[in-house]
Fold this protein.
Amino acid sequence: MPALEQFLGSAADLSAATVNRLTRQWQDDHAAFQRRDLAETDYVYVWADGVHPRVRLGQAHSCVLVLMGVRPDGSKELIALAEGLRESTESWADLPRDCRRRGMRDPELVVGDGAMGLWRALAEVFPQARHQRCWVHKTRNVINALPKSVHAGAKKALQEITGAEDRAHAEQAAKQFTKDYGAKWPKAAEKITGDLDELLAFYDLPAEHWIHLRTTNPIESTFATIRLRTKVTRGAGSPAAALAMVFKLAEAAQARWRAVTAPRLVALVRSGARFENGHLVEHAEEAAA
């Protein structure tokens, strides 16, 4: 990490040979990370997002595709990071497909934005995983489909859905949103009603985890910091070196990631325990006993 800090903080003090050596090492580290065996690692929840870290990548519209997961002990971990196209099914399929090849099993839930490429890829590679649409991305998309004059009211109405105490109240709030905005702006309402099941999937998981599972914020917040760091330099040379630099920054940030709230419940989720509106439901035989 000191070498990375030095590169980003005062690259002018480093010789060309030192910069070349650092970037080669970062590329080697990234390659080794992307080849590691995942058979002995389990990810119960996974966040997936395509982010733009302000570095020069290989293609004009490329971004960094990121998978981050939660292990059964509740700790967060970077799973994979690669260059790709946000809306491309093939780009998204390559990343989880490679993870599957290296032994990764289906997570219980994947949280992602509305990129169709992502969901098509997940259905192919991890068919057992449930899907949760990110509420930050969804809110942005809905608001963009409405005139500015109703933005404030619409945002409050959307918060009534995502902040509801249980699924029934969330569904009722969604109906109210459709009633209030659907007649004049049907496309905005359809963005909610068309994805409602995947927007409310988090209600079937522990209430303590809802704050983590409604959005892709764990990725977004990490890369907000990375963007600030990469802004200091114009990049690390080639697109491959720039991507490796982003990886090293994410790897360093990982040491500061906090476990999810109530980490003990993550293992219960993986074991097949059933939750209803955030609360653990007793198995019939346990209740009878």
